[in-house]
Design goal:
The structure is a homodimer of 261-residue chains.
Chain A (H helix, E strand, L loop, with lengths): L3 E8 L7 H14 L4 E5 L7 H4 L8 E3 L2 E3 L1 E4 L2 E5 L15 H13 L6 E7 L6 H10 L4 E6 L3 H16 L4 E6 L4 E2 L6 E2 L6 H8 L4 E4 L4 H9 L3 H4 L4 H24 L1
Parallel strand pairs in A: 1-7, 1-8, 2-6, 2-7, 8-9, 9-12
Antiparallel strand pairs in A: 3-4, 5-6, 10-11
Amino acid sequence: MENIKHKLLVLSGKGGVGKSTIAVNLAVWLSMQGKKVGLLDIDIHGPSIPKLLNLNGKGVQVLGDKIKPILYSNTLKIMSIGLLLPDDSSAVIWRGPMKHNLIKQFTSEVDWGQLDYLVVDSPPGTGDEPLSIIQLIGNADGAVVVTTPQQVSIVDVKKCITFCRQLNLPVLGVIENMSGFVCPQCNSKIEIFKSKGGEQMAGEYNVPFLGSIPIDSDLVSACDSGKPFVQFNTQSPTAQALCLAFSSLLKTEKTQSNKEK
Amino acid sequence: MENIKHKLLVLSGKGGVGKSTIAVNLAVWLSMQGKKVGLLDIDIHGPSIPKLLNLNGKGVQVLGDKIKPILYSNTLKIMSIGLLLPDDSSAVIWRGPMKHNLIKQFTSEVDWGQLDYLVVDSPPGTGDEPLSIIQLIGNADGAVVVTTPQQVSIVDVKKCITFCRQLNLPVLGVIENMSGFVCPQCNSKIEIFKSKGGEQMAGEYNVPFLGSIPIDSDLVSACDSGKPFVQFNTQSPTAQALCLAFSSLLKTEKTQSNKEK
């Protein structure tokens, strides 16, 4: 872990808000900026990263006492329990201590090499997995917190910010996903899951707001087919919203680390 | 637990698919059919039930060695860790063993009384919480598995069905939530998260398909304002889709229990 310059955790109090989508696109975007990047998926029960990058069926090699991560590209290394399972439908029926041991292996026995950034995709909640990674990863730069705009999601994400504060993990910012929807037939803007909830909450908790990502059925299709949106749909407004949010994130991170110096 | 006739678990491999929305509406619908119902929320990190039923701020009483559940109505009793927290933003930063102890208290020390149905809303995944409840609850009738139609969700839900089978918990059926969207401006049908994925998966795994629930921004608003849809929006097509799915569920349950006899 000491060969890794920056460590970013993608967190959320709530499932299904698009954490893995954000984590994958952030990692791919960073690697497209010329950075050496690792993407670590610590969602043990529902690992989505292999599907989102179309890596299913790619096996992981063990060389000596080191596990070789899968290369998505020359500058992007991936590790996920999904790469170790025999098939899609295999369930990992584990309690906390076993999950802790696996996360320990992922941080200490994977051959990450020299990295500019490690992006960690964590499952929802404030339990074993996020606790373990924060303890095991050492000094993380901070957390990117993902939410959707509706109140039922905001409630859980507030808990996530409380969690970060109690563990002294800086919150680098909030991304509001699934924010508004533009009907592709009539161009009306429909607020299916509302909008602005994430922005208001960020203001209330005095954490940076990084941007809103609209609901986009093309993004859903891209996820299902394993083609990261920021790489394959560069011209779409949704991809541009993602890139803008990631640029804001790097700016916040820089300001924060300058302050610390 | 022996005073409870039927025990139904609402499960999903994936977060954010609407498990809590389905659990709340199922419990309210059963109570509207004249049944005595309990609704137990075992999502320790992100309890949504108090918000979905507008119960925030209602305290729980302890009488002798029994915890009194909150009454939503004369025939519907509720228990959730959300009812025990000082406020919305409090995070429960617990590892597995503490979560197991709380779920044990919820099953053994809550004064549920005589119930026709206990509906349990579980967090996503195949880890501590669903493992604990299945072990502690005794003979459950089975699981209602909730998914959304897109492949990224289906992958996790397959794991959930594998989990049920390994633990000998009958799968009573699959509900496909967020299935298609009708633009309220132009009435075009837009498949934001696709559709039919849940139905196909149910066929593939030979488990009953209970029905599809469309994406409906009125349902999102109802969740945020704590007004269960099947009670307050009885005429809406979405509420009718929910009621149809619940009727199918009871039919499946009956057939299954007749087979066992």
